[in-house]
Amino acid sequence: RREEDTIRRYAEERDMKDKLEEERRLKKLKRDQTDMRDYLATQVKNKHQKDEIDKEVVGEQAKLWQLDREAFAREEAQLSQKMKDQTVHNQQLLQRQIDEARNKKKGMDGIEYSINKTYLKTIRAKKHEILKEGE
C-alpha cells in the first residue's frame, strides 16, 4: 500500500509538473505570438509611414519640377519675345536704310539743291554747249 501511495503521489506530482510545464509552454507560446503580432504590426506601421513619407517626397519633387518647368517656359517666352523685338527693330532699321538709300538716289533734298543750284546751272549750260557742238 505504501508503495502504491508513493507511486500515486509520484504520478500526481509528475502530472502536476507536466500540467505546470504545459501551462508555462502555452503562456510562452501566447507571449511569443503576441510579441510576433506586435512586431509585425510595428513593421506594417513603419512601412505605412515610410510610404507616406515617400509619397510626400514624390509630391514635393513633382511640385519642384512643375515650378522649374514654369520658370523655364517663362524664360523661353521672354527670350522669344526679346528675339521678336530685336527682329522687328532690325527690320525697321533695314527699312529705314533702304528708304534713305532710295531717297539718295532720287536726288538732293531741298538744302542740298539750294547749295548746289549755281553749280547745276553751270553744268547744264556746259552740257547744252557740248551737245550743240556735237550736232
> What percent of residues are in strands?
under 5%
* Sheet with the most strands, sense and barrel status: none
- The number of helices is 2
Shape: rod-shaped
Class based on secondary structure composition and strand pairing: mainly alpha
As residue ranges, the low-confidence spans are: none
Q: Kindly report the average pLDDT value.
A: 89
Rg value: 55 Å
> What's the count of strands?
0
The helix content is over 70%
Element order: H for helix, E for strand: HH
Euclidean distance between termini CA atoms: 180 Å
What's the short story on this structure?
The protein has about 140 residues and is mainly alpha-helical.
Sequence-ordered SSE layout with sheet pairings:
Elements: H1 2-106, H2 110-134
